[in-house]
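An instance as discussed:

___
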Amino acid sequence: MSATERERSQAREWRGIRVEAAEPGRLLCRFTVPSRLLNSGGFLHGGATASLIHLVGSAVFHTAAAGAGAPPSTSTSSSSPLEMNISYLDAAFPDEEIEIEAKVLRAGKAVGVAVVELKKKSGKLIAQARYSNYLAPSSKL
C-alpha cells in the first residue's frame, strides 16, 4: 500500500466507522461490532447504537451542505442533536460487520432531518432512526 493509499484509508477510518460512500445528502458506512460495545446479553448495546446514529446522522448534513455548492466548513460550523427516535429491530453481535446509511430528508437554514438505518449484511434492519439536528450557522466575525 502506497503512502497516499494509506492516508486515504486512514481518513476513511473514524472511530471504527469506515466511510464507503459519500454523496450529497447521503452517507454510507460500515462498522465491525467490537466486544467493548456489547451489553450483558452479548450483543451491541442500545447506547452504542444511538451513538453510531448520532455520529453518522450528524456527518450526513455536511454532505448536504457540500452538495449545495458550499464546503461544509462555510455553511455549518457546528451542530447539535435536537431529537432521535430509534426503533430497535434486531441484534448485532461481536465481530459482525454492519452497514450504517444516513439520508438527509430536509436540510433547512437552522434544522435538518435525516433517517439513519443500521443493517446486517443480509439487509435485515437492526435499527432505524429519525434524527433531527440544529445546524448552527458559521460566525461572520
About this structure: The two ends are 43 Å apart (CA to CA). The longest strand covers residues 125-136. Residues 68-75 have pLDDT under 50 and may be disordered.
